[in-house]
Amino acid sequence: MQRRDFLAVLAAGVAAALTGCENATPASAPLMPGGSPSRLPKYPLKRGASPSSIATHAINRAPAGVFQAPTGLVQVPVPEGSITMLPGHGNYVALTVDDGTDAEVLAAYIALAKRTGLRLTFFANGYMSSWTDHARALRPLVDSGQAVICNHTWSHRDLTALSDHEIVREVQHNEQFLTNTYGTNGRPFLRPPYGSHNRHVDRILQALGYPAVTMWWGSLADSTPERPAQVVANAEKWFLPQRIVIGHANHPGVLSVMDQIVDIIQQKSLQPVHLADVYDLSQLPPIPPMPTQSPSPSATPSPTATPTATGTPSKAPSPSHKPSRSPSAPPTKGH
Ligand SMILES: [Zn+2]
Q: Could you read off the pLDDT of 230-251 as tens digits, one per residue?
């Protein structure tokens, strides 16, 4: 390996370890494929991970119907800037499930939600075939309002490294996929891949109908392969009131412990919600005209492009919930 290549790989590994979604994009992922998703190269799924191989073994012990839809929630407008935790006070928690590189894990989350009533926020990359393969199972949850499916861009590229045009295509191509497949375009919630964004990216996203990027404050740290016991430990650590916790449908480490995650939520008397439960989507600001100027120096990725520097909501949470550490400073490796 050439030294330059080695350094590039090393840098990529370090960056991935610090952010949200390592290895979510295959090395051979097309930059922006054309045509319909069905004609695109498929992400290599785990062997045997067909839609018919739903991992029911993973949820056999999860209690059925344990979670109900929240009542009495006062929805608030979607803020500008970024979202790192749920607004207001309460015992609500939002588990978000990203990427979808492992169809079996996605199927297990869908089955878990159907069985327990767990409300979920999905951040989908339409490029991952799992979102197409399991649309028939997932769409009823979206249609009923138990789950919400949002934009994680089409092919999970670092938005701070793209041109304005490429950013727009990554966002809008995924919107088209979500609209065709799930009947919703995902607005106004978008999570930038790797949690990587900056003011220039934010400005483009705002122009596309995303007033705030959606970050997190707590993680199952399962974007890379992780031991099931560690996933449980992460859940125990990060499922707290008003937290947005990031998980991934990427690796099977979570499969055998999904029922334990449900137990943890129950034991802590937390009420699962999704983002559309807590934000009033009827009061979204109109989509302003797209910015026309060429990329400025602020578009250059910098340390502030990481979630650490940009993860503070513009509407700060109440003091009692103010993060004692950066919400998106990863609690453990594997982000
Ligand atoms: Zn991701």
A: 999 999 999 999 999 999 999 9
Distance CA 88, CA 279 (A): 11
Interval between CA 170 and ligand 1 midpoint (Å)? 13
Compute, in angstroms, the gap from residue 232 CA to the centroid of ligand 1.
Answer: 20
CA of 77 to the centre of ligand 1 (A): 25
Domain assignment present for residue 73? The answer is: no
The domain of 226 spans 3-68+83-281+295-299
Whether residue 323 has pLDDT greater than 70: no
What separation in angstroms does the CA of 29 have from each of 13, 33, 155?
17, 9, 7
What contacts 263, CB < 8 A, 6 or more positions away?
none
In a domain, 321, yes or no: no
Whole-number Å distance, alpha carbon 94 to ligand 1 midpoint, is 16
Asked if the structure places residue 209 within a domain, the reply is yes
In a domain, 92, yes or no: yes
Please tell me the distance between residue 325's alpha carbon and the centre of ligand 1 in angstroms: 22
Query: What's the whole-model pTM score?
Result: 0.74
Question: How far is the centre of ligand 1, averaged over its atoms, from the C-alpha of 72 (Å)?
Answer: 32
| Ligand 1 center from residue 105 Cα (angstroms) | 15
